[in-house]
Design a protein that fits this description.
Length: about 325
């Protein structure tokens, strides 16, 4: 007897493809405060400099992220049901609460602000909402957000710092059981200033910072294998050509500038130009010569051959 054909899931495939089609495929133009939980400075620098292709997520993951965003609205409703006064948007703009620092290159977006909590009725709090799977949620309940989710803790410290608030209210939902965990987090100026200084260093660093792990096969380096910059960092792959991977461009107050063409708008940064020269730390070879007159830099590649950057121009 012939085997039955595998069941078709064409409609499901269409749903996932629709999520992929509408997804934003460009890097952020700034270093996100929400990313500072990543312990690798190099990974953050890569993202800020668009040094690898934007991470491409499949439709299932994109839908999962949307579930988290939709849950935020429900948690705001939950707080209002409990008598908390919730400020969903910034009254000055009518939009989501936005925080900007370090010349506009360091930004974050709060889920809201609120006051009237049973634990501290008068204090205004930063609101931060997250969804967790079962394992993550259990660790959160057991150890608290600072230990279990240091990235979320760092995010709240920065939000409090730039919003001028001394408390944050962290609300987490178990996606498996709908159980809720809440914590009040106190502002720690030393932590916030340390994170700010780290961000400033990453933004102003002209070359990629040191690798978190030199050997990606080491047991402690398992996280490297999930990094979107792995092929550039460890695989000898060239970065894309754009203004942010070019040694002529640097972050400046309010944007980016080129030592040849001046101020660079976002479209120009993404497009780049024919005079592009890679930041040396992004070339998988050793620099052996530079010719300022002709605008070229020569590298010796791992196989011993010489490659001249800028020669095509």
């Amino acid at each position: 007897m012939a085997e039955l054909p595998a069941p078709q899931q064409q409609t499901l495939d269409a749903i996932y493809k629709a999520y992929e089609a509408k997804a934003e495929r460009n890097h952020r133009t700034y270093l996100g405060m929400s990313t500072m939980g990543n312990e690798c400075d190099r990974a953050l620098w890569y993202a800020f400099h668009w040094a690898h292709e934007p991470e491409k997520l499949d439709g299932r993951k994109l839908r999962l992220f949307e579930t988290g965003h939709r849950e935020e609205a429900r948690m705001l409703d939950d707080l209002e049901l409990a008598g908390v006064t919730v400020h969903r948007v910034d009254p000055a703009t009518g939009e989501q609460w936005a925080l900007t620092a370090l010349g506009g290159h360091f930004r974050g977006h709060m889920d809201g602000q609120g006051e009237g909590f049973e634990e501290a009725p008068k204090a205004r709090h930063v609101l931060e909402f997250k969804t967790h799977n079962e394992k993550s949620f259990k660790a959160l309940v057991k150890d608290g957000v600072q230990k279990a989710k240091p990235g979320h803790y760092a995010q709240m410290q920065l939000y409090m710092h730039y919003a001028g608030l001394s408390r944050a209210f962290y609300m987490a939902v178990n996606k498996n059981t709908d159980e809720i965990h809440t914590e009040r987090v106190e502002y720690d100026g030393l932590v916030a200033l340390g994170l700010e200084n780290r961000a400033r260093t990453i933004i102003n660093c002209p070359e990629p910072p040191a690798r978190l792990h030199d050997d990606p096969t080491a047991k402690m380096a398992w996280v490297c294998n999930y990094c979107p910059g792995f092929a550039v960092c460890h695989g000898g792959q060239f970065s894309p050509r754009n203004c942010r991977t070019c040694l002529h461009a640097t972050p400046a107050e309010g944007g980016w500038t080129c030592d040849r063409f001046g101020t660079l708008d976002e479209e120009t940064q993404r497009r780049g130009c024919s005079l592009h020269l890679f930041i040396p730390g992004l070339v998988p070879g050793e620099q052996v010569d530079a010719d300022p007159e002709h605008g070229t830099v020569t590298y010796r590649m791992p196989d011993g051959t010489l490659w001249k950057d800028g020669d095509a121009a």
